[in-house]
Amino acid sequence: MSTKTISEGTSVIQDNLDYTLFSWSKQKGIAPIAVKYAEGVYLYDYDGKRYIDFSSGLMNVNIGHGNQRITNAVVKQMQEVTYVTPSCVTKARGDLGKKLAEICPGDLNKAFFTLCGASSIENGIKLARLYTGRHKILSRYQSYHGASYGAMSASGDPRRLPMDAQQSPNFVHFDLPYLYRWEYGEENLLKEAVASLERIIAYEGPSNIAAILLEGESGTSCCLQYPVGYLKAVSEICNKHGILLIMDEVMSGFGRTGKWFGFENHGIIPDMICMAKGLTAGYLPLGCLMVSDKIAAKFDDTVLALGLTYSAHPVSCAAALETIKVYEDDGLIENAVLMSKYINEQVALLKQKHPSIGDFRNTGLLGCIELVKNRKTKEPMAPFNARPDEMTVMNKVAAKIKELGMYTFVRWNCVFIAPPLIVTKEQVDEGLAIISEAISIADENYFEF
Ligand SMILES: Cc1ncc(COP(=O)(O)O)c(C=O)c1O
To answer: How far is the CA of 175 from the centre of ligand 1 (A)?
Structure first.
């Protein structure tokens, strides 16, 4: 009889593999990190191995892991009251609504609390349709807005393609090229991007369009920054046609881009903001749809046909309130700005060392390195929506990153640099040293003419 014992970590992994399903992956061949505990910018597995978290989980753990202030606020709320129906109110809900109205610009003063990013998007889409009486939603091809049917149909991301046949109706996508892969000059990029959006609006009929939905700053599509002036032009086009502008700040919100919200880097104020992730920094699930006074006023005498059992969950609201206080008390958004500048300088040095770094796009602490096989042709190390057999080199890069003690998001030919906002210079150095070593593998697959 075998007396072989398996370690606790191995048994944790095995139970997860045997009894749970994993997102966006084929289920065979998965090798997850079994996280025993996490603190600051680090995750620790059952063997005591430390991983620096360079994507803040899924770009949500903005305040870092294990902050006891949030635990304490959650415990206190749970001791008082854990659940009330959304028709009752709590101090946490009112305080959070008030705080969000304070940090949101303009007249974005009313919060409808949801559960996550996708449910904020779903409710934003519904409300835009109810408010305008129009049906179409326009969004960017290279975008992600969530995995529920409406949010997924709004997303242009290829994750929607497997269920394309059942997509929700009345979503229209438009293309928005990005500077690195645009050959005709920066000024022409803005001109062409705006002109093409105007053409699509004309073809679709402006009076049929309820809203344009855009990420505050592009995230999982590999941080494809807006041409300078683009969001301002979109905002003006929306005003001209009575189309609502919904900014998806699920990933770019709460200091991630060096401002409370990504759109604040572009001098605009939208009609609605969808939030989640950084709202609670991942400590508990919560989302929020923030709407302008003008939109809210319409429902003073009309039924607001939205609802969720867990809307404004008191414990999640308490977590969010304390999280926002942490951003403020610890000067985390200011630190994001400082660390962003430092990362930009350091990655510029890495670019001199590693020929495979084609581009680095970064706003605040939402950045990624795009790896190429040749800088002139810009052939990507793995193509857009790469098949598994096209990911050989990038899989090796990702495996090296993990082996060297880092957790980060690697997608197609992009390696993300999006650490928690508490990150220090020393931790940036530690993380970039790991990335530098790992992308030496990509350098070996670089070719000169
Ligand atoms: C910009 C954006 N919107 C919406 C979502 C969906 O959020 P959730 O996964 O919480 O539903 C995401 C998730 O990554 C996102 O990045």
So the answer is: 20
DSSP letter at 256?
A: T
Is residue 145 within 6 Å of ligand 1 at its C-beta? yes
What global pTM score does this model have?
Answer: 0.97
Tell whether ligand 1 has an atom less than 6 A from the beta carbon of residue 416: no
Contacts of 207 (CB under 8 A, 6+ apart): 134, 241, 242
CB of 215 closer than 6 A to ligand 1?
Answer: yes
Q: Which of 277, 289, 308 to mutate to test the pocket of ligand 1 (most atoms within 8 A of CB)?
A: 277
- For the Cβ of 278 lying below 6 angstroms from any atom of ligand 1, the answer is no
Q: Is 118 in the pocket of ligand 1 (CB under 6 A)?
A: yes
Decide whether any atom of ligand 1 lies within 6 Å of the 116 Cβ.
Answer: yes
Angle of helix 392-403 versus helix 425-443 axis, rounded to 10:
150
Whether the Cβ atoms of residue 283 and residue 70 lie closer than 8 Å to each other: yes
Instruction: Report the distance separating Cα 15 and Cα 243, nearest Å.
Output: 49
In this structure, the residue with its CA closest to atom 4 of ligand 1 is 145
Along the 449 residues of the chain, how does pLDDT read in single tens digits? 555 688 999 999 999 999 999 999 999 999 999 999 999 999 999 999 999 999 999 999 999 999 999 999 999 999 999 999 999 999 999 999 999 999 999 999 999 999 999 999 999 999 999 999 999 999 999 999 999 999 999 999 999 999 888 999 999 999 999 999 999 998 899 999 999 999 999 999 999 999 999 999 999 999 999 999 999 999 999 999 999 999 999 999 999 999 999 999 999 999 999 999 999 999 999 999 999 999 999 999 999 999 999 999 999 999 999 999 999 999 999 999 999 999 999 999 999 999 999 999 999 999 999 999 999 999 999 999 999 999 999 999 999 999 999 999 999 999 999 999 999 999 999 999 999 999 999 999 999 87
- The residues, ordered by sequence, that sit 6+ positions from 446 with a Cβ below 8 Å of its Cβ are 355, 356, 372, 373, 374
